[in-house]
Design brief:
The protein starts with a helix and ends in a 14-residue tail after the last helix. It has a single domain, classed as Methane Monooxygenase Hydroxylase, Chain G, domain 1 (Up-down Bundle), CATH 1.20.58.220. Helices cover 83% and strands 0% of the residues. The chain is built from 7 helices and no strands. It has 223 residues and is mainly α.
């Protein structure tokens, strides 16, 4: 019985990591597509979305059936609860990658705007947050997860800097409004990816320490 218990827990974890691996690959591809304006590469990211959605459904099924069958407690129960929460967060990262891909596809029809040069850097920061959040989950590393949460401030600052720059572009030249809006939307989607990496990191802290820190100010954390 214990052996089956462990095998089913491992299956949940493997499914999460398979899904996360696909999403991480999508972020690599979308970073290249953004840097090169490659609509074909962006299409590949869009094509992966349905399979990623199915992994979210499978994680929810496995976790729900595990709870009904084994009625886990303490650490095991937290593990399954976190699994149920991680599926939607990882799926939303994929959705925002798809949203970025759609904007890249649209922008590929026009001349580059020559603005928002910090966008690739912003995406790189968000991508690193996602990769590190998944690594913290695998290692059950609450300290690393807390550090990832702190890194979200840098992404937010870049978002507002890019947003203000693009607003200026639109005010100065109405013909650039459509292209500037594409870039604003991309920045917004990247900011959401960083938020989702933050949410994953908060769940890692809960998994390890049994301490919910979402909606809790950093000054109140019990390090």
């Amino acid at each position: 019985m214990q052996r089956q218990f462990e095998l089913e827990l491992d299956e949940i974890k493997r499914t999460i990591l398979t899904m996360a691996g696909m999403v991480e690959k999508g972020l690599v591809d979308i970073s290249k597509a953004l840097a090169m304006g490659d609509a074909e590469l962006a299409e590949g990211v869009i094509a992966m979305d349905d399979e990623i959605d199915q992994y979210e459904v499978e994680i929810d099924r496995l976790a729900t059936e595990f709870i009904a069958k084994h009625q886990p407690t303490a650490t095991d129960l937290r593990f399954v609860i976190v699994a149920i929460k991680l599926g939607p967060e990882i799926e939303r990262i994929a959705d925002n990658s798809v949203n970025i891909a759609g904007r890249i596809r649209h922008m590929s029809k026009y001349e580059p705007l020559g603005a928002a040069q910090d966008l690739p850097r912003m995406l790189g920061l968000a991508q690193a947050m996602v990769n590190d959040a998944i690594a913290a989950y695998v290692a059950r590393d609450a300290a690393s997860a807390r550090e990832i949460i702190r890194r979200d401030d840098e992404v937010d600052a870049l978002y507002w800097s890019i947003f203000k720059e693009l607003i200026r572009f639109m005010v100065e030249d109405s013909e650039r409004i459509s292209r500037a809006i594409d870039l604003i939307l991309i920045a917004r989607f990247i900011e959401r990816i960083a938020d989702q990496a933050t949410n994953i990191s908060e769940e890692v802290v809960y998994l390890v320490e049994a301490q919910p820190i979402r909606h809790v100010d950093e000054e109140e954390w019990d390090d």
